[in-house]
Every structure is written in structure tokens, then in C-alpha cells.
Amino acid sequence: MIHLICNEQQGETFRMKVTRPMFDFIETMWQQPTADEMSVLNGVRIAV
């Protein structure tokens, strides 16, 4: 089972707040993982 913890909840792995401008900025740099990266990391591609 996967548990998602929102930024506001600051769970045990919380390190920093991510603001909307920070998220929007880094989103412009996101690149899909290559097939090799997916294979090595046992990645699963899901449709959104």
C-alpha cells in the first residue's frame, strides 16, 4: 500500500517546503526517463 503525505503534513522524511513557483520552475526541466533508466530502476510507466 502506498501512503502519500502532503507537504503540509511534514512526515518523517520531510526536508523542505516546495512552493508552487519552485514546483512550476523545476517542472519545465523535467525529462522522461530513458528505457535504460526504467529498466535499471525497475520503473513502471503509467498512463495519466
Protein model, in words:
With 48 residues, this protein is mainly α. 29% of the residues lie in helices and 0% in strands. It is built from two helices and no strands. The chain is extended and about 35 Å long. The chain starts with 19 loop residues before the first helix and ends in an 8-residue tail after the last helix. The model has no long low-confidence stretch (mean pLDDT 79).
Gyration radius, in Å: 14 Å
Question: How does the overall form come out from the CA principal axes?
Answer: extended
Give the amount of beta strand, in percent: under 5%
Helix/strand-derived category reads mainly alpha
Q: What's the rounded overall pLDDT mean?
A: 79
Largest sheet, strands/sense/barrel:
none
Give helix % range.
25-40%
* N→C terminal distance: 20 Å
Helices and strands, in order, run as: HH
The number of distinct β-strands equals 0
Question: Which terms summarize this structure?
Answer:
48 residues, mainly alpha, 0% strand
How would the blueprint of this fold be written?
Blueprint: H1 20-27, H2 35-40
Brief overview:
The chain has 48 residues and is an all-alpha fold. The protein contains two helices and no strands. The radius of gyration is 14 Å and the shape is extended.
